[in-house]
């Protein structure tokens, strides 16, 4: 480049670079920042949010989304309640309990993500436990907290099991107790807990509580009601992008895994791939099968509230389906 050309071109190049930077800044400034806290460390069930991030669905919807891992639904509910995060992923049952016991009535769920409870009775193959009544006279390994949440009692009541005829073994490692044959059954999630046991010994098909009359609604998208009122457009855009990400997970699980690992490189690829595949069967209940992704049926929510009131000590009459969930912001079909 000769001196004359340099004198002409360099200023123009500088102007172009500045314009590009300003344009980029303007674009970033135009995005609504949204902070999201998951219920737990990210797993395969969270794949849709990472697909939506990786494919730019959130940005296309005008959102700059930041996703942080959680350490339990209770912690996420508290973090959303105190304004540390705009949106959370937490159990709908846990939200109902928080509203009833801690008066966290300024939070609502706006999309159901796990609606069929993965809780199950897990046994080793050849145990002779084929139906609920077979649990009588057997050894049950569990931790004290599992007994306190009451759902094993609900399962027993719904299926005519006399818990006085079950030998309860309190342990900090129920899976190990089962594998060492110190117990005949445990109560864990069919996936991924049952999958973990199956790595070391063959198991019988898990006996899902939801298939035997006991279903607690699981993970959902939650948001403060006042933040929702002020940012309705952002919430609708977030849910539409999430649903689009979920559609892509179903179409191409392998690609979903790649996006997940891009954002969570410390994850176990094999474990995450298994979760992406297996957890899809818990997205709907019988009442919501065939309905738009994220829709929660009022009767399912009523059952969750009733079970928690009856077996988990949740104060009765305080929580109503309309106080903890709304479908107003779900994307319309085809959106």
Automatic annotation (TrEMBL):
GO terms for biological process: thiamine biosynthetic process. Residues 1-28 form the signal peptide. Pfam families: NMT1. Keywords: Iron, Metal-binding, Pyridoxal phosphate, Signal, Thiamine biosynthesis, Transferase. SUPFAM superfamilies: Periplasmic binding protein-like II. It catalyses: N(6)-(pyridoxal phosphate)-L-lysyl-[4-amino-5-hydroxymethyl-2-methylpyrimidine phosphate synthase] + L-histidyl-[4-amino-5-hydroxymethyl-2-methylpyrimidine phosphate synthase] + 2 Fe(3+) + 4 H2O = L-lysyl-[4-amino-5-hydroxymethyl-2-methylpyrimidine phosphate synthase] + (2S)-2-amino-5-hydroxy-4-oxopentanoyl-[4-amino-5-hydroxymethyl-2-methylpyrimidine phosphate synthase] + 4-amino-2-methyl-5-(phosphooxymethyl)pyrimidine + 3-oxopropanoate + 2 Fe(2+) + 2 H(+). The keyword Metal-binding applies. Pathway: Cofactor biosynthesis; thiamine diphosphate biosynthesis. InterPro entries: NMT1/THI5 (IPR027939), SsuA/THI5 (IPR015168). The keyword Iron applies. One of its GO terms (molecular function) is metal ion binding. Residues 47-256 form the SsuA/THI5-like domain. PANTHER family: 4-AMINO-5-HYDROXYMETHYL-2-METHYLPYRIMIDINE PHOSPHATE SYNTHASE THI11-RELATED. Homodimer. Responsible for the formation of the pyrimidine heterocycle in the thiamine biosynthesis pathway. Catalyzes the formation of hydroxymethylpyrimidine phosphate (HMP-P) from histidine and pyridoxal phosphate (PLP). The protein uses PLP and the active site histidine to form HMP-P, generating an inactive enzyme. The enzyme can only undergo a single turnover, which suggests it is a suicide enzyme. Belongs to the NMT1/THI5 family. This is Thiamine pyrimidine synthase.
């Amino acid at each position: 480049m000769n001196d004359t050309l340099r004198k002409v071109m360099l200023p123009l190049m500088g102007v172009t670079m500045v314009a590009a930077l300003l344009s980029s800044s303007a674009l970033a400034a135009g995005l609504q920042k949204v902070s999201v806290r998951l219920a737990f460390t990210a797993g395969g069930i969270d794949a849709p949010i990472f697909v939506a991030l990786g494919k730019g669905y959130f940005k296309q919807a005008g959102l700059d989304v930041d996703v942080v891992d959680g350490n339990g639904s209770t912690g996420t509910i508290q973090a959303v309640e105190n304004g540390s995060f705009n949106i959370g992923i937490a159990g709908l049952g846990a939200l109902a309990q928080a509203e009833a016991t801690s008066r966290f009535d300024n939070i609502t769920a706006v999309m159901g993500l796990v609606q069929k409870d993965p809780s199950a009775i897990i046994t080793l193959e050849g145990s002779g436990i084929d139906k609920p009544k077979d649990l009588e006279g057997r050894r049950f390994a569990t931790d004290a907290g599992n007994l306190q949440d009451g759902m094993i009692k609900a399962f027993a009541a719904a299926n005519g099991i006399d818990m006085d005829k079950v030998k309860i073994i309190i342990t900090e490692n129920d899976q190990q107790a089962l594998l060492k044959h110190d117990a005949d059954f445990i109560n864990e999630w069919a996936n991924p807990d049952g999958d973990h046991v199956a790595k070391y010994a063959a198991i019988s098909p898990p006996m899902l509580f939801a298939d035997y009359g006991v279903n607690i609604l699981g993970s959902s998208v939650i948001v403060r009601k006042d933040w929702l009122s002020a940012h309705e457009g952002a919430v609708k855009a977030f849910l539409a992008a999430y649903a689009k990400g979920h559609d892509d997970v179903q179409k191409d699980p392998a690609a979903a895994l790649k996006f997940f690992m891009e954002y969570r490189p410390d994850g176990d690829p094999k474990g995450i791939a298994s979760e992406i595949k297996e957890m899809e069967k818990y997205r709907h209940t019988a009442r919501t099968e065939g309905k738009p992704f994220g829709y929660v049926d009022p009767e399912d929510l009523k059952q969750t509230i009733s079970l928690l009131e009856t077996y988990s000590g949740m104060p009765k009459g305080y929580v109503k389906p309309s106080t903890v969930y709304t479908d107003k912001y779900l994307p319309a079909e085809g959106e």
